[in-house]
Structures are given as structure tokens and as C-alpha cells.
Amino acid sequence: MKKLLSFILLFAIVSMSCKFLTPQEEDVTPPPPTAEPIDVPPALDFSGINTLDDIKPKLAEMGGAPCEGQEELTCVTLQVPLNQFDAASTETIDVVFGVLPATGERYGMFIQAFPGGPGGEGISSAYWNYFDESVLEHYDIVYYDQRGMGLSSELACPKTYAADFTSYLIESDTAGLEGIDTPEEQEELVNDTEKYVNDCVAEIGIDPAKLAFYGTDSVAEDIEDFRAAIGDEKFWIYGVSYGTAVSQTYAYAYPDRLAGVILDGTIDMTVSGEQGSLNQEKAFDKVLVAVLNACNADELCSADMDGEDAVKVYDDFAAKVSQDPIAYTFPLPNDKTVKGTFTFNALEYTTSYQMYSLSGRMLFLKALAAAKHGDLTPMLRLMYDNADIDPATFEYLGDPTFSDTMFLSVLCTDDTFFTGTPEERIAQSIEAGQASNGTVPRLDGSVYTGVSCAFWPSSPKEAVQRQPLVLEGVPVFVLNAKLDPATPFEDGKAVFEHLDNGYHLYGEGGIHSIFGWGNSCPDDYVTDFLVDGTLPSEREIVCDEWAETVNAYVPNPPQTLSEAGSLLDAFTSIDDNLFYLPDFYYSDASEEESVGCNLGGTFTFGPSDGSQIPYKFDKCSLIKGLAMTGTGSFNLDTGEMTFIVDVSGDKTGSLTYVYNYSTGDVSLTGEYGGETIDQ
Fold first, then answer.
1. What is the pLDDT of residues 201-213, one digit of tens each?
2. DSSP state for residue 107 in the 8-state scheme
3. In 3D, which of 346, 294, 289 has the Cα closest to residue 315?
4. Are residues 481 and 364 in the same domain?
5. Helix (H) or strand (E) holding 194
């Protein structure tokens, strides 16, 4: 159990760009007020906040040019002090901002403290389709790559991280309980972590003392430098996940420069590093149990679990994998396979990532149900996708929009974990971790971050303490969800309760970050504030649209044709489950991609031409006794799915399947086993 580093770095990671790779959540009418009305000031007057009628000439003056890969954005490079807090320091670095100028009358800048992590790049992952057109009309939407990431003087140790991460995924705990509970394991953890930090810093190639200048406090100063360069008196800021730390850090330093703040998936800056990790462990466990209980309440999901308590199914599976990792054979395209071993580490990593979204939770339940019936392939698909691992080689591919290196560096620069000498902090981290040994509580281990931070060169020598954010007079929206696994609900509520002019919009269920999914709450409240200056009539509002725990369950394919019922039912199930293949579901289909079907053969999709996604099948089988060879497509304009295939297996034939997602009309025609089919 020496490679916990890779797992503990998972928890705060979230990239908002994943939102539009999955379907929108359901729209519901706005909820009624949940509290007595308050005295709301008249619509705020935004005049005088901006100094420019049009930002484009200013960007041109600053050397702006289209951002590579994001041509609609104009990128400008600021040369800023490496040490933002020493006026005598002359060393500088480059920080890049990307701007989408307002299309109409300009109100000012709306800066996106957008990346999750820390570690997420803002420019390469920027998108703006979720904004109301009125916001795009009146605001310059500003993104940035914070120092040390992407276009902004990148620091990275990819080789060191890749080696550590892949070994973590395949490693098994063979001593004591699951976790770091024996003296030998604890010694190994300390030695391996020290080696990792030393190797990573050496690979970065920077003077270790300079890592102290890459924390969130420096990022806030870079944003202030950009504001000053543009010349606006004030601006609005949106922070999501780790971006809420950036937003609050800026607010501590420059409260008079903010016209409004939206915090989404909110971090409590007053909580210590170790307490934040422990809070997060509890939140992940809470969400997982809620998802499993939601399966129990869903007839289709419960049936796929054979009527067993889903919590028990998960715990039994976790215990089994912990005691005896599962040797597997995974299907690749063209009837090739690859062998591997599925470990408890891989299970926890996969489970944790799937807790971030309603659709991800449903896909996890499908994978768990399949694993219960001996089919590990769906769980492996999720593991490979979440971990960015090449199934054929087990090579770590990484996410080009995320810095694994800067995740740890910023985390350890911003906060201490426990107090005392490095040795004392390590001992306290290990002691706190002992409460999490075993397979329950689930999804734990992040408190061991303290071991890594004890070795990181820029870790503060004294405990970091911050006062609650008040931000007198500035409207602050705190967006929150009770089933947020990464930034616990209680932490966001604590931030709201100290604000001078705060508004708490939250869901009784929900996910990590709730703005921009097309739901009227909170989206309409945020838009009304930005465009009209109007504030909610209640301090706390429950967003009924975010009451759900998990998306409606889609059953796994029947094992045989006889279990399917009709042939049409079999094809409908195949259609559903091809759609929910992680390789397809999370893809933008911009390139051709092939995946191995569960029971053999190949499914190929893409590239999309903007109006449809083409399919090819080569003996693709998801149900025993039925393999498809042929073509198909999904029409993005009409919502029509079509398969034109020859089938083999129990019987042979030629069939055309058509399903229209817009109307619900479905048909299956052709010939099968010598009989005419018209269903």
C-alpha cells in the first residue's frame, strides 16, 4: 500500500469541461421560496464599473492574438513578478489570459476561476455555451492558465507521476488490513513519498525554493495585475471547486475590486488541510452510500443486483477484491485481448471518480451489477477512462488539460497538514489515517496527503489560519449540493453563514458544481444578477432541480437472447448499452474510435461531421448468441439511431433497427432465421 499518493490527489479534481460530454439534467419548474422574504435592494447599478466600451482595442494593444486551439478567445500574455510579494524581486514569469469579448454593450469582465484541482488549465478547457446569450452580450468572459500550468510557465514531472500512478493502480495490500496499518507499510510510505517528491522536483528542474511562488495567493495577484492592465475598477468572478479558493483568496486581498462573486462547489478556507481531507473522506462515503441506496429504491437497478442490498453488494465486492485481486481478460478491437489484475486501489479510484455526476453514478451502478454477475468489463472501461490509461499497454496517457504536478504543489504550498516538525506532521498524518484502515469506511485515505506535504519544499512551516470571509457589501452566491463528494455541503454552508451579503442556493441531492447545466435554479438567479443586477428574495433557496441522487437506471444487456424477450427488445438493449459505453458516452466523436465489444467483435464510431455520428460493427456482440456486422449512424439533428446489420449467432439474418430519441418511435425490420421481421 505504498502508492497512496496517486489516490489522495484524486479528491479535489474536477474539470467542468466534462459537463457537455453528458446529457443535460432534467429541467423542472423553479422552486417556491423556502424562507421568509428579505428586504432586497433595488437592482444594482453597474455603471462606472468598466472603463472601456470595448475591450478588443485594449487586447490588441497588449499583443492579443487568437488562442491556439481556442480561436474564438483572444490570448494576452502578462509578464508578472515571480515573487508577487517582494517589490525588490526582478525575476518574472509569463501568465496567459484568454478573453471572449462581449458581443454588445459592455458591462465589464466576468473572470472564470474555472479550473478544478488545483491543476486544471483554464484556456484549453474553456467553454461558454452554457451562458445565457445576455451574459455573453454584456460581459467579457475571461479565462486563464494559472502560473505553472498550460501556457503560463508550465512546471511538470510527468515521468515521475506516471510511474507512481500506474504502480499504484496495480499494487495490492498483502499485510494487515487494507490501508497503512503495519510499521513496515508506514516506513515504506514515508520512504516512497520522500523519493517521489525528490524525483518530481528534480524533473521539474526548478530551484525548490521558488515553488513557494506558485500558490493560490500568487494566482490572486496575477488576476489583480490583469485587472489593472485592462483598467476596470471592478469585475465579477466565478469560482468552481478549487476555483472557489482562488476567488476567496482574491476577495481577502482586494474586496473593493469585486462587483459580485459566484462560488460553486465551495471550499471553506478556514478549515485546516487535515480537517478538509477528513471532511472530504466523509463526503465521498456519504455519496457512495446514498447512490447504493438509490439503487435499492430503483426497481430496474435492484433487479440487476438480484434484489440484494446494493450497499452489501459493493462491500462484498470490495472485500473480495481486497483479499484476492481479480485477474481479467479485457476485450480490445479486432478480437484482441489484454490481461491484467484489478485491485482494490483500482476499485476505489474508479468508484470515487464516478461519484462526481448523476450519470457517472448510474454508470458505476451498471458496472457494479455486471461485476456481481462475473462481468468485470464495464468496471474496467470506467477505470481506463477515469485513469487515462491505454487499455492495450497500461500506459498512463494523462489529461492534457490537467497538471498532476501542480495539484500537489499548490495544495502543499497553500496549507499545512498538522503542525510541528516534518517528522511530527508525518506521524500525525499516519495516526489520523489509522481510523480509515480496512474496506469500510469507503473511499478514504486523503488525509495521508499530509505525508506528501511534509516533504514538499514549499510547504509552510507554520499552520495556515484564515478568518471567515465577510466581503462587506459585495453580493456572493454560494452554490452547493448535499451530495457533493469533493467539496462537502457543510463547508459551503459555513462560508455562506459568514458573508455580509450572501445567498445560498443548493440542492438536496446533486453533484459537484451545479451552475451551467441548464437548470433554472441556480442558472436563472445568476443570470438575473449579472444582467439586471437583481438579487434573490430569499437568503437560502432550495433548487428542486438538484434533488436527485442518480440518473434513472438503464439495465445491463440480458445475458442471452431468450432472456431478452423479443428480438426488438434485444436490439433496444444493445442500443442503450452501446450509448452508455464510457468510450462512447464521454467522447465528442471528433475522431474515429474503436472499442472491443464485451463478448467479442468491434464497435467503431466517428468522426462526426456535425450532423451525424457514423457507426461500424464487426461481429460486435453484447448478448450471447447475437453478433452484428454492418453500419449505422446517429443523426444529431433528428435524434434518429439506425443500425443496418447482418446478424449471426443463434440464427442468421439481415436487420434494420431504427429508434428516434425525439419521438420514441422504434422499429426492427428484415429477415432473421428465415422469417420476415416487422416489429
1. 999 999 999 999 9
2. -
3. 289
4. no
5. helix 183-204
Longest Cα separation, the chain = 87
- The answer to whether residue 392 is domain-embedded is no
Reported as a single tens digit per residue, the pLDDT across 273-327 is 999 999 999 999 999 999 999 999 999 999 999 999 999 999 999 999 999 999 9
Give the integer Cα–Cα distance in Å for 486 and 13: 8
Location of C-alpha cell 450471447: 624
**CA nearest neighbour of 410 among 365, 464, 480:** 464
**Containing structural domain, residue 135:** 60-154+215-266+467-544
List, for residues 468-505, the tens digit of each pLDDT value.
999 999 999 999 999 999 999 999 999 999 999 999 99
Distance in angstroms (rounded) separating the CA atoms of residues 431 and 480:
31
Does the pTM surpass 0.85? The reply is yes
321 plus 246 within the same structural domain = no
Query: Does one domain contain both 191 and 249?
Result: no
> DSSP alpha helices (H): ranges in 457-594?
489-498, 520-532, 561-564, 567-579, 582-585
Residue 667 shares a structural domain with residue 574? yes
Q: Which residues contact 142 (CB under 8 A, 6 or more apart)?
A: 97, 98, 99, 100, 109, 110, 111, 112, 226, 235
- State whether residue 111 is helix, strand or coil: strand
Give the three cell numbers for residue 327: 485477474
Pair (251, 361) in one structural domain: no
Whether residue 552 lies inside any domain: the answer is no
Instruction: Pull the grid cell for residue 126.
Output: 474553456
CA distances from 664 to 442, 553, 564, 669 (A): 40, 18, 20, 17
- 122 and 245: one domain? yes
- Count up the domains in the chain and report the number: 4
- Contact at 8 Å (CB) between 93 and 220? no
The answer to whether residues 486 and 435 belong to one domain is: no
The SS3 assignment for 536 reads: coil
Whether residues 159 and 148 fall in one domain? no
